[in-house]
Amino acid sequence: AGDVNIPLDSKPISSWPTHFNLVKVERIGKHGKVFLTIPSLTSTAEEKFINKGEAPGDASLLDLDAKNTVFYVGGVPPDFKVPPSLDLPGFIGCLELATLNDDVISLYNFKNIYNITKSIPCIRDKLAFTQSRVVNYFFDGSGYALAKNIESRGKFGLVTRFDIEVRTPSD
């Protein structure tokens, strides 16, 4: 199977509200979905963007060897080659990596952290069962983080889901 890009037709990230937004990526077999949920600041309404994609070929499993798989959060090292569609500036704002295959992941589980500061607080304004187990980091656009030992979270199989909550700073 090859790479598949699933773009979202949402407004630019710089115009998102300064509350956490939910980005969810799901893969079931060769079918993928990307969900973006942006909460309203004035009501209980949410703005949702959903797009689907399908991996080419006959393979239906996401076959990742945990010993050779790297999961970067917030950006990639300067010498890391990415496809042109992913060659974007580093993320600026607060990230909260909530779950990987429904297993809560704290940002303290990173193997290495590069150019990230914890000095700017990322306030949560919603309650969740994971709140006490989740950590926030502020990304200034120049750093990234590397998730630690994903093998302990189980093998990637037929269903793989990444949930990331994103908040950008207000201008």
From TrEMBL:
UniProt cross-references to InterPro entries, sorted A to Z: ConA-like_dom_sf, Laminin_G
Taxonomy, superkingdom: Eukaryota
Domain Laminin G stretches: 1-122
PROSITE patterns, A to Z: LAM_G_DOMAIN (PS50025)
Name listed for the protein in its UniProt record: Laminin G domain-containing protein
Species per Swiss-Prot/TrEMBL record: Micrurus lemniscatus lemniscatus
Lineage: Eukaryota, Metazoa, Chordata, Craniata, Vertebrata
